[in-house]
Fold this protein.
Amino acid sequence: MRPRRSLLGWMLVAPATIGVACFLILPVLLALGVSFFDWDLLGTRDFVGLENYRSLLADGALLNSLLVTAVFTLLSVPLSLALGLILATQLVRALPGSAVVRVIVVIPWVCAPLALGVVWTWIFQPSTGALNTLLGIRVEWLTDPTLALPAVAFVAIWQNVGYISLFFQAGLGRIPDSIYEAARLDGAGPFQTLRHMTIPLLRPTTFFLAITQVVASFQVFDMVYALTGGGPRHRTEVIASLVYHEAFQNSHLGRASAVAVILFLLLVVITVVQQRWFSSRITYDMS
Amino acid sequence: MKRRSLLTSLAVTGTVGALAACSPSSSGGGSGSGSDGGGDGKTLTFRLWDETAVDAYTESFAAFEKESGWTVSIDLVPWADYWTRLPLDVASGDAADVYWMNSANYVLYKDSGDLLDITDVVTEGRDRWEKAVVDLYTRDGGLWGVPQLWDSIALFSNSDLLEKAGVDPTTLSFDPAADSDPLREAGRALTLDKAGKHPGDDGFDADSRTQFGVNSQADRQAIIGPMLAANGAQWQKDDEYVFASEQGIAAFDYMQGLVNDAQIAPSAADTNANGDVSRDLFTQGKLALFQSGPYSLKTVFEGVGDSFSWILSAPVAGPEGPKSLVHGVVAVGNAKADDAKQEGIAKLLTWLGSAEGQKPIGAQGVAFPAHQDAQGEFVDYWDGQGVDVSPFVEAAKDAAEADTGAKANAGLEAAMPIFQEIFIGRTTAAEGVPQAQEEGNAAMA
């Protein structure tokens, strides 16, 4: 019986396994291989060993992109999570109009980032943009080197808050009311309840969101591309933009692959660190 | 698919997969692709990036089909995706049989043996093709595309505003060595703030300008190219930038001065972020002089409507006279398409190089056809709309060189952010132009 059951199991997972192997593992391995070549995609491939990695580290472009991406992540992820949680705590109270607000805040997440980027370039336009007109000032949001990255992060936060709040709403829905009642009877105020009960009980949700949001912000590309194109002077050139520029504008597929490999390794490290950090914290069983 | 093609596709997927996978907005962006289109042996594929040209080519191919028996399937890939998809399709053997190409990109494909030498394919009528375009695509003894359309640069003028300010657009000129010149004087007269003051007047508020004199922005084709050439600066020599000459630096300093010192051009903070700001201001009647190409004609014509009258004239003259940049688009033949299709490809390229094949491009007002005998169609179309487009024809006769080289795009991508910094006034021309040349040349190496 066991071999037959085992065979059935393999058959059931085979389509997914083949898909993952062909469209994920094999391309990753090939990209790793390409990173050791000098190749413009159309001509011949010349083996250059670690030269692509060496040149990337030497010319500062990779370091700049890593720094830009790290700052973007630090600006966008914690704020997105905090605002998403605050929004969720209000939406679960089922106040009048909550259903409408719930739909409205998710709309930006449903929209294509590229389209959102284009719309926000109009809003951020210094002379005729809606934002400056509303504020009655003239700020160069996307062309000032000190403001461009925070402006991009702001759009990312605006786009993601609704999506994040959905998960927090689901997490909040799983916390039994009796726990809050007990806390109230013990004299806990709203802030104490949030800090000592809600946040710890939402740790699994927070863990999931933190990992996915960090990974997503390290992969962000199209919205940044539409908003600033990586400028001014590479101040918003996130790591995925660097992959694109190297591959399609500079025709350096080897260097682009090297950046992609570094990005992959970096995400693996970040995910492992996050997993360790969260697993060392207590998770309450609410079942 | 061949083994190499499969591996290429997978390798590229691996490299850029992160981009595609992370983005929920990634899309195909085209309408079919590849040389497999059609199915039977008498169907060819043709790829282009301009949606407005599709109807013209549909009309042209209908006539070609009757004459040759070959049908042509059109594959539209928008400009935003064109140069990303093309190398992938060419490398994996899925390129169209005939496709549009520009001068900044063709050398890469020519060097890798992907393009047919047109001198072997089209034997008659080549002398009727626009010479400026033929020169752009002539390299290493071959011609690497059949000229399709071209554009040059002219000056769009708001006649109502110019008449009010007493400015004649045909007399405009600039001289970076002088303290003032007709362009700056006209620009000053045409620029107004909310209180009706001109730049230089007491209390003039640049942030509240309601009307601008002229466009000056980091636009290689309409502004940088013509202004540098008109000041006697050369853009590139062979495949290397040489624009950081004394004349080149002076021209850049002059162009940024129109924005930051004379304050007669829209802010670079606006034009760097959105290159169409100047065109939009012109169509709204808020910009008096707008230097651009035929690619702006339709938008300006439809946007302006009856709100004011406008005319075209020669680009602003510099010490070397008025100069334009001529860009040309060609149709290239896929040298690696199936042998069975090569006869059809040769026939299609010959048709695309004929006056009959190009007439719909002009007759539908898409662009200037590259065949001289078809250009009258475009002039007639715009005559019918009340616009005299002859300044574009004149401007093309003494044109400056457009970008070319195996990595011309990479060079421009490296230089352009520095040009933008010069226009916005954060970097001086003396500092930025040599830096842009150095970084541009490094990217093209």
